[in-house]
Hints:
Low-confidence stretches: none
Number of domains: 3
CATH architecture of the largest domain: Up-down Bundle
Largest sheet: 4 strands, mixed
Distance between the termini: 40 Å
Strand content: 15-25%
Order of helices and strands: HHHHHEEEEEEEEHEEHHHH
Radius of gyration: 21 Å
Number of strands: 10
CATH topology of the largest domain: Butyryl-CoA Dehydrogenase, subunit A, domain 3
Helix content: 40-55%
Oligomer: single chain
Amino acid sequence: MDPFFDASHDRLRAKARAWAEKHLQSGHRGDVSMEEEARSLVKQMGRDGLLAHTVPRRYGGARDRVHLRDICIVREELARRSSLADVMFAVQALASYPIILGGTEKQKGRYLPALAKGETIGAFALTEPEAGSDLAAMQTRAVKHGKAYVLNGLKHLISNAGLAETYVVFACTGPRKTKKHISAFVVEAGTAGLTLKERISLISPHPIGTLAFDDCRIPESQLISGGGDGLRIALATLETLRSGVGAAAVGLAERALEEAIGYTQRRRQFGQPLSRFQATRFTLADMATELAAARGLVHQAAWSRDLGQGDVAQSSSTAKLFATEAAQRIIDHALQLHGGLGLVSGAPVERLYRDIRALRIYEGTSEIQKIIIARTLLGDED
């Protein structure tokens, strides 16, 4: 039994695992485009209640408030079967959370129910060509004209770019580069001046691209939290959901360990299964130990966030850092144990090898997590 979960979380895990086993196949389906599959996944997850765990009950959600433990459970189970399904679930949460944090009641009522039901796809548009980890370098600007804002700039490496109907966009609204010069907006697909500039192909299935804003005029009513609060909203969203990235890594690592155990028991060399060799056993033991440690850190961080205990920034960064780095090592070991077959395109461990790599980068690189952890330990304000 996991001390960080109660019976409701156990039921959710059973539901999410059964759903994933029924609806997901390893890797991307070859009979449809990735974008078509992504849309289908969101609709199915919405219909079956998985996306309801990304918003509060008042707006169509599963609980009175969002449980990070729910998000981690679902991400573990989805990632274990399909990284694309995990990405689509995660980005719905990323798009919903800024609106939950700072949206008006009208904004919440308009956007959250549709995101929770999978009727619309969301996106979180923060990164730019020259502003990744350094958010103060943001160049996209939103200038007020009467009762509207006009946006100009580029957003780069945006998940669901060109696919989403609801974009949460961050832009500079102040005259100087200060913590209060960034604001958040809800921008709807189809708004004049918003275009998909480029689709980008990654090594793992993931709809992503570059958005262009050219005199994109949006009503003042689309401003979140009154303006000037965008950096706080962005960081609070990432800080809260960061443990979910660690959870996805745990799901990938769990699948890798399962594949490694099964293969080494079947594969015979020198007259016996690979699993009989001490070197193989030591490797599997190391993999299982790192997986258990990663799972424990992720679950503890999510529990701490849900109960409002401890330093959320430190626990979430620690969980993401360790879980993603450990999963990379676990999956690498799994591929090595498969030998040449691990390199075959489409093999489960080959897919996992490509899927894990992005998790050490998005929502804050491993290096950024170390900065956050050290800053917390040393009591630095900046």
